[in-house]
Amino acid sequence: MTATTHESHGTGHDDHGHEHDHPAWLAHHFDDAEQQFDSGKLGMWLFLVTEVLFFSGMFCAYALLRSLNPEVFSYCSAFLNEKLGAINTGVLLFSSLTMAWAVRAAQLSQHRLLVALLGATLGCAAMFLGVKTVEYSHKWDLGLLPGMLYQAQVSHPEHHAIPTALPYLQAPGVVLLVGFALYWLWALMKRNDFHLQIAGPLAVAAACYVGGAFLGLKLEESAEHAETAAHATHDHSDHADHASEGTAVAGATDATALPVGSERENLLIPQQSHADQVAVEKGIEEVESPSVNQRGRAGVFFSIYYCMTGIHAIHILAGMGVIAWLIVKAARREFHSKYFGPVDNVGLYWHLVDFIWIYLFPLLYLIK
């Protein structure tokens, strides 16, 4: 009995010693930091494989639909603003740089630099979403919706300086900006360095979202002004051609100079939709067929567009949530040379998200 009691106390003492030697950042089921890091890295790579397979299905659907409807994809891609897509591409590439740098800062225990770099990555992601918000809201105003919801206007619509849906989509960013700014002011008054390191990056990210929406709006307005000017020039040249034709007809003595019924046929020509006008101005030859601008056809392109870019945006949001979690842990100075696996794994995820966009941009925006 005594021996058993003594043995049990000894075992408890050994366990207590083992618990004492186990650092807080090392999970109890791992023997050392290297085993924990390798296991986490393996799990992340397996998760990324499933993500690649998931997006591969959408890329295969894109390839199949484009091969069956090449003229529709050429026609509809004219409505995507290449400048906005290029800006988002540059923003995500820069965010990959800051994320990779953040991993190195975690390895070197550079805590403040780590928080700043994670905040920069978070701000880039927020700017990406701000620009994408303008793109989506502008297309909704024009009726460029997925599937059978597609309802592009028959006549040339009045351009809105501010898309009708934009204030509602931008409102969360403004609310978060005000909230995080107040949080930062409170931390500054309390002189709480921990909360200052958290509130600063979050406020900057909210400001980047609002700034990205403002930048996207300005670029959309400039594109619309250019289209309006081109349309006015086109109308002016058409009027000049019609005037010259009228003069020639008035001076003609032969009754057959003007084909019988030609004026009536011109009146029966349907007015081009805004979609047709934009595509013609951009040199899309396939829009000569009016059957392209139909719900069952043009809606196919915007279905795959919203599907691929929308799911990618959801991944951006998920990445932003995890990066915010890393900022909190970095402000607590939890990362160092032996424990930086979470930063490295999130970095791998973020690089995949950026990599997918590098394919989405040319496939949707550039290939005509």
Q: What is the number of beta strands?
A: 0
Shape: globular
Q: How would you sum up the major sheet?
A: none
Task: Please identify, by name, the CATH architecture of the domain at 81-152 and 164-231 and 272-368.
Answer: Up-down Bundle
Distance from first to last alpha carbon: 86 Å
**Poorly predicted residue ranges:** 1-18, 154-160, 242-275, 282-290
Structural class: mainly alpha
- The value of Rg in angstroms is 29 Å
Average pLDDT confidence is 79
Please trace the helix and strand order, writing H or E for each element.
HHHHHHHHHHH
Q: Helix coverage percent of residues? A: over 70%
CATH class of the domain at 81-152 and 164-231 and 272-368: Mainly Alpha
From the 3D structure, determine the CATH topology of the domain at 81-152 and 164-231 and 272-368: Four Helix Bundle (Hemerythrin (Met), subunit A)
Count the helices. How many?
Answer: 11
Q: Beta fraction of the residues?
A: under 5%
What does this structure look like?
The chain has 368 residues and is mainly α. The protein has a domain at 81-152 and 164-231 and 272-368: Four Helix Bundle (Hemerythrin (Met), subunit A) (Up-down Bundle), CATH 1.20.120. Helix content is 77%, strand content 0%. The protein is globular and about 75 Å long.
Helix and strand topology:
Blueprint: H1 2-21, H2 33-68, H3 70-76, H4 82-107, H5 111-142, H6 166-190, H7 193-250, H8 262-268, H9 274-281, H10 295-331, H11 341-366
Helix pairs in contact: 2-3, 2-10, 2-11, 3-10, 4-5, 4-11, 5-7, 5-10, 6-7, 7-10, 10-11
